[in-house]
């Protein structure tokens, strides 16, 4: 308990709160900028179980703001969830950490959420956020929402028992399309938003419910603005809050491709799994091949690169054209 002495001295947590944190389990969806800061705080705070999930591997452009990663992780193409788990375990070996390298979808969200007390949103896109929203409201557990772009950020704790949901706050069509990959982001706003996400989460886990406010907090730390918006009442036409219907969970389980906004990449999700050793033999004549325990990267031309993950996910880098990506996939990999 020496380790947590300063946190225990903090009145609203105390010994009892520390025990509650230790008995808690949290899922973090996304191990990028927000996710790494959230994971760092929760691990050091002594959460019992942490489940982290991310589909990407570490790249040099991540290091400016994704606090758990090193240049070596980027050189070795280490999946973010694995790289994060390795370093988090050196911060606190008492925390049980499970790392999942996978794309989060309607197919696996329920199993990822099993036995979790709370979910932290570390994603960078609204389709995954709606999936988190719908899954959490269906299972009746809260999620700590955060979003950052440029020098702006926003965060709120959505709790099915006490607040309306993300769909009541935002219109699904309302997104500006601005992402960190298209308009950039500075790292301090990441720390601020992620730290508030964790603070609200700790209030919930230690049952300090009076300290929680049903508000959306927003900041622009470059332009010196900040304001709070009261979360709206549950909307009468909200499918989740009013009709117990969960649109994000009704996605088909088939091969599909999607453009990764601002990254000049297309992601193809196949229900097949790949034997990376066989695929390496099959594809090595095409160009430079880099193989790690988790993925296979093949440069098939100066502009097009494939990245294959054994669980059936393929990234086609160098195009954002879905048809072109699918035709390259069918030609070289097939299904
Ligand atoms: Zn709602």
Descriptive notes:
Helix content is 34%, strand content 22%. With 335 residues, it is of the alpha/beta class. It folds into two domains: 2-249, Rossmann fold; 256-332, TATA-Binding Protein (2-Layer Sandwich). Strands 3-2-1-4-5-6-7-8 form an eight-stranded mixed beta sheet, with helices on both faces. Helix 3 (33-45) packs across helix 10 (187-205). The longest helix has 19 residues, at 187-205. The model has no long low-confidence stretch (mean pLDDT 91). Residues 164-165, 167-168, 234-235, 238, 240-241 line the site of zinc ion.
List the helices and strands and how they pair.
Blueprint: H1 5-9, H2 14-22, E1 25-29, H3 33-45, E2 49-54, H4 71-75, H5 80-91, E3 96-101, H6 109-112, E4 118-121, H7 126-139, E5 143-149, E6 152-158, H8 166-169, H9 180-183, H10 187-205, E7 215-220, E8 225-230, H11 239-243, E9 256-260, E10 265-269, H12 276-283, E11 289-291, E12 295-299, E13 305-309, E14 313-317, H13 322-332
Helix pairs in contact: 3-5, 3-10
Brief sketch in words of this structure:
The protein is α/β, with parallel strands linked by helices and 335 residues long. It has helices at residues 5-9, 14-22, 33-45, 71-75, 80-91, 109-112, 126-139, 166-169, 180-183, 187-205, 239-243, 276-283, 322-332, and strands at 25-29, 49-54, 96-101, 118-121, 143-149, 152-158, 215-220, 225-230, 256-260, 265-269, 289-291, 295-299, 305-309, 313-317.
